[in-house]
């Protein structure tokens, strides 16, 4: 019944055109399933061969690498032994030979049936699909290919080739968990393209085709990946970052590998669609419309990688495309405090386009932002392998976009809905954006008018993160619900209505009214309409006095009747929060910091502190996917009848 209800809700969010499209695709899938059962596979008109090495083999790239980096021998040995870490977790056994259909977390083995028929959202069937798909992206093979290119030690190449050939044995076209999603096929194509090009640095332009036992079978699989991506692109209400990732994978594969005349058509199509989606999915001010900072970074890296490959193959992207890259980078830098990362606004799945080190990156944001700057600015220092290899692909990359950046306060993103206030000590981000992108707003959180505060580069008032996608609806809903964010909720209801793990029905619309400075006081004002269904309007102003390091959060709530209003302030996990009962203040401190945060709530609020509560859920923080820790949440409640004007003063001492 729950599955039926989900489908009914999903249908209500589709246009008539989308419904017809999905019915047509379902019929086509059934037809394809029957054909595959009878032995059919998509096949190219000729052999698939190497086309372009992503790296210029005439340049001393390997010598240059050794001047910047050392091999992580211990991490590589762990990989060779079949132990790989994902999402920053402790390494997991993937088997050797690799068990491609076994989830390395739960050890659940996904059935080897028609991939598009698998319910990958059901843990009982496939286990934790995030880890299983991460394995199937083959990104862990790239560091081994780097090691072979640098050292020439055949054990690295043999391990890579053995894993790819094992995957080919276990995953015939259309069968199993790795043929569910066009995005997963696209990311695998990016990995194979990098591995092939790294092997080509040492072995010549044939790269992987020279290394595998059966180059014809390997080439056939490349063609089938491209066919699968092209025919199962995410469309309509699902056409978010997935579509950009799929197009990037198709574009890259058709540039690195020659898959015949059809491949040239696919390449032209992918490039044109990437140009179009860079406009459709990103506001003119550079904010990704999904309203999820991690996916903003994802889209930035996809668009960047496609641009790098175009530079290598001589294809030309538009000036607008480069300006979009620059605007997206500028936004991430603006919302990040000096020395820190952006707040965890919206969903985060902790993945990325490519990895070159055995160790999971300490900060994917820092690595990706630095890589963009390294590519477009020859004078930018090379800070990571990603920056090094991306610059090596790009070569001499001319661009009319200005990638320079200077810190300024305040700064507003009117279209995207964000404001950044602060000085060299305080950094404040206010979210007045819409819920998310397209009809289902899949990766948005009900966080309108939430405020996050960093002091000396460290977040004190935090966004709680994501924690889970499919595994637990109760936890999934908390981390994306309104009570998990530094905002106000009415009558214990989210601003927007959750209808599934990646779906919302009633959706709040946010608006940034004003960002500016007057008489030295910085101010941002925003509003949202999420509670108009309850007869309540909410407008919030955030003011910052740089001279006093004082933040004022001023909420104006107007109601047509009596309602319960609740306000939340979520602190980072290592912050202690105590009450000064005499003064009516709350004092936050952090180990190894002389700073104190003093919160002075309006006396209309009845305040309390919650930490690690499970029923109902409150007081939790997720530093990464599938990880959560208790944290202090300052919670206030007040009866709202008519107008409630509340002022929260925050002093940084």
User: Main sheet?
Assistant: 10 strands, antiparallel
**Beta-strand content bin:** 15-25%
Q: What structural class results from the helix and strand content? A: alpha+beta
The 3D shape can be described as globular
Number of strands: 25
How many helices? Answer: 18
Low-confidence stretches: none
Distance between the termini: 55 Å
Gyration radius (Cα, Å) is 25 Å
Mean of pLDDT: 95
Helix percentage range: 25-40%
Describe this structure in words.
The protein is α+β, with helices and mostly antiparallel strands and 653 residues long. 36% of the residues lie in helices and 22% in strands. Strands 10, 13, 14, 15, 16, 17, 18, 19, 20 and 25 form a ten-stranded antiparallel β-sheet that branches. A five-stranded antiparallel β-sheet has the order 5-6-7-8-9, covered by helices on one side. The longest helix is centred in the first third of the chain and has 22 residues, at 16-37. It is globular and about 75 Å long. The termini are far apart.
């Amino acid at each position: 019944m729950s599955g039926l209800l989900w489908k009914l809700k999903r249908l209500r969010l589709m246009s008539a055109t989308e419904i017809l499209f999905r019915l047509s695709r379902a019929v086509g899938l059934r037809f394809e399933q029957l054909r595959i059962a009878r032995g059919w596979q998509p096949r190219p008109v000729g052999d698939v061969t190497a086309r372009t090495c992503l790296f210029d083999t005439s340049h001393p790239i390997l010598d240059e690498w050794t001047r910047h980096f050392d091999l992580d021998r211990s991490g590589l040995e762990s990989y060779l032994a079949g132990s790989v870490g994902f999402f920053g977790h402790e390494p997991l056994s993937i088997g050797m030979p690799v068990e491609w259909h076994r989830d390395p977390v739960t050890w659940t083995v996904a059935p080897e049936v028609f991939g598009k028929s698998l319910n990958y959202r059901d843990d009982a069937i496939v286990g934790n699909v995030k880890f299983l798909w991460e394995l199937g992206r083959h990104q862990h093979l790239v560091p081994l290919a780097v090691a072979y290119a640098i050292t020439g030690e055949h054990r690295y190449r043999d391990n890579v080739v053995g894993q790819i050939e094992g995957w080919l044995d276990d995953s015939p076209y259309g069968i199993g968990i790795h043929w569910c999603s066009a995005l997963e096929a696209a990311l695998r194509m990016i990995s194979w393209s990098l591995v092939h090009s790294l092997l080509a640095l040492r072995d010549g332009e044939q790269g992987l085709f020279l290394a595998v036992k059966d180059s014809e079978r390997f080439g056939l699989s490349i063609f089938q990946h491209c066919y699968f991506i092209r025919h199962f692109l995410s469309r309509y209400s699902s056409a978010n970052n997935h579509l950009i990732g799929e197009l990037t994978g198709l574009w890259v594969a058709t540039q690195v590998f020659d898959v015949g005349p059809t491949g040239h058509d696919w390449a032209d199509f992918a490039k044109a669609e990437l140009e179009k989606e860079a406009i459709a999915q990103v506001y003119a001010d550079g904010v990704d419309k999904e309203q999820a900072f991690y996916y903003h970074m994802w889209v930035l890296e996809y668009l960047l990688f496609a641009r790098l490959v175009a530079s290598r193959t001589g294809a030309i992207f538009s000036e607008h495309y480069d300006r979009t890259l620059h605007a997206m980078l500028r936004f991430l830098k603006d919302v990040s405090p000096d020395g820190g990362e952006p707040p965890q606004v919206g969903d985060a799945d902790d993945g990325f386009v490519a990895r070159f080190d055995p160790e999971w990156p300490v900060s994917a944001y820092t690595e990706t932002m630095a890589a963009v700057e390294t590519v477009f600015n020859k004078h930018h220092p090379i800070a990571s392998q990603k920056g090094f290899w991306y610059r090596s692909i790009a070569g001499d990359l001319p661009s009319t976009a200005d990638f320079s950046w200077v810190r300024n306060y305040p700064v507003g993103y009117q279209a995207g809905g964000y404001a950044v206030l602060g000085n060299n000590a305080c950094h404040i981000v206010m979210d007045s954006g819409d819920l998310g992108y397209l009809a289902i707003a899949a990766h948005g959180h009900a966080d309108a008018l939430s405020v996050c505060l960093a002091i000396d580069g460290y977040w004190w008032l935090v966004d709680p993160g994501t924690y889970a996608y499919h595994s637990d609806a109760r936890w999934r809903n908390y981390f994306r619900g309104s009570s998990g964010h530094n905002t106000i909720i009415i009558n214990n209801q989210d601003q927007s209505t959750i209808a599934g793990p990646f779906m919302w029905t009633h959706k709040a619309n946010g608006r940034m009214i004003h960002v500016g400075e007057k008489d030295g006081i910085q101010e941002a004002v925003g509003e949202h309409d999420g509670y108009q269904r309850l007869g309540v309007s909410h407008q919030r102003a955030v003011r910052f006095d740089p001279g006093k390091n004082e933040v004022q959060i001023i909420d104006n709530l107007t109601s047509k009747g009596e309602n319960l209003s609740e306000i939340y302030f979520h602190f980072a996990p290592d912050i202690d929060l105590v009450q000064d009962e005499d003064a009516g203040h709350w004092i936050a401190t952090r180990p190894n910091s002389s700073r104190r945060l003093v919160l002075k709530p309006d006396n209309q609020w009845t305040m309390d502190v919650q930490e690690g509560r499970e029923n109902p859920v409150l007081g939790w923080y997720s530093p990464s996917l599938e990880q959560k820790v208790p944290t202090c949440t300052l919670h206030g409640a007040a009866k709202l009848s008519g107008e409630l004007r509340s002022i929260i003063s925050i002093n940084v001492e």
